[in-house]
Amino acid sequence: MALKACKVCNYLTEERKCPMCGSEDLSLKWKGVVIISDKEKSKIAEAMNIGKNGKYAISVE
Ligand SMILES: [Zn+2]
């Protein structure tokens, strides 16, 4: 199954809705992956306003 990116929080999932924020607004058109494994230390997580560890798309159309 294809990986989809949540348009709200950028979280990548194979589910029909985002397990992170509950949104069903998912897109197959996304670019780049960022994996946040330690959000406390991650500048990327801070910059992208990510609150939980996981796999995120860098940009979502
Ligand atoms: Zn989401």
If strands are numbered along the chain, what order do they take across the biggest sheet? 2-1-3
Mean pLDDT: 91
Please identify, by name, the CATH architecture.
Single Sheet
DSSP helix count?
Answer: 1
Bound molecules: zinc ion
Radius of gyration: 11 Å
Tell the overall outline.
Answer: globular
What does it look like?
There is one protein chain. The chain is built from one helix and five strands; from the N terminus they run E-E-E-E-H-E. It has a three-stranded antiparallel β-sheet, with no helix packed on it. Strands 4-5 form a two-stranded antiparallel sheet. It has a single domain (4-60), classed as Rubrerythrin, domain 2 (Single Sheet), CATH 2.20.28.90. It has one helix at 43-48, and strands spanning 4-6, 12-13, 26-27, 30-36, 54-60. The two termini are 19 Å apart. It is globular. With 61 residues, it is mainly beta. Helices cover 10% and strands 34% of the residues. Residues 6, 8-9, 11, 18, 20-21, 23 line the site of zinc ion (ZN).
Task: Please write out the topology.
Blueprint: E1 4-6, E2 12-13, E3 26-27, E4 30-36, H1 43-48, E5 54-60
Antiparallel strand pairs: 1-2, 1-3, 4-5
The protein binds zinc ion.
